[in-house]
């Protein structure tokens, strides 16, 4: 669980960037039409993405507040690639995807609301030991090993249970139900080095 960071090898996983795949509006909106009040609906659907790419990150959040179509367009950039690195943000996103997965399983793969899962084309899964250290107070250090064995074992057991039983299990659940991520094209799993799985 802790070795990728402490192995002595160069930590490169946070440096790899991939240009988001331009999912068209009809795909992220899962076949639903533009709302009549949506100004960009006057453009050909294949051009909408190119317009959205010009919106800076600060204005992207404001765009999401306009209406449901704008919210989904903003999501298409914000969530094109998600990093599941055990951070608070990634755990929050995973929680949303789990809820979408449950909803779709109850309604035969369909959803009544626009989803984040439909906007995702790449997922990067990695175990960042710094997150584990911060969340569970477990580390490879003399200070940690100086603790009483009961305290060490309790922390390690809790970290393993939370990470493997809850976090990894939830990732597996989301990936196993493909309708949750209908446009997923690329899965990258870091196990000391990147392993890319095409979809």
From TrEMBL:
Instruction: One Pfam family, please name it.
Output: F-box
Identify the PROSITE patterns for this entry.
Answer: FBOX
UniProt cross-references to InterPro entries, sorted A to Z: F-box-like_dom_sf, F-box_dom
Q: Which part of the chain is the F-box domain?
A: 37-82
Q: Which SUPFAM superfamilies match?
A: F-box domain
Name used for this protein in its record? F-box domain-containing protein
């Amino acid at each position: 669980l802790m070795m990728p960071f402490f192995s002595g090898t160069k930590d490169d996983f946070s440096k790899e960037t991939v240009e988001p795949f331009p999912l068209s509006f009809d795909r992220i909106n899962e076949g639903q039409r533009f709302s009549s009040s949506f100004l960009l609906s006057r453009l050909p659907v294949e051009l909408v993405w190119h317009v959205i790419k010009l919106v800076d990150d600060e204005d992207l959040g404001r765009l999401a507040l306009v209406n449901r179509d704008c919210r989904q367009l903003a999501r298409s950039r914000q969530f094109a690639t998600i990093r599941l690195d055990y951070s608070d943000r990634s755990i929050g996103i995973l929680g949303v995807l789990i809820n979408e997965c449950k909803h779709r399983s109850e309604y035969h793969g369909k959803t009544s609301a626009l989803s984040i899962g439909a906007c995702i084309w790449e997922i990067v899964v990695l175990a960042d030991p710094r997150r584990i250290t911060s969340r569970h107070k477990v580390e490879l250090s003399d200070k940690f090993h100086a603790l009483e064995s009961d305290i060490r074992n309790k922390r390690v057991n809790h970290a393993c249970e939370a990470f493997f039983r809850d976090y990894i299990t939830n990732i597996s659940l989301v990936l196993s139900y493909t309708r949750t991520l209908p446009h997923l094209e690329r899965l990258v799993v870091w196990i000391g080095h990147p392993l890319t799985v095409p979809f």
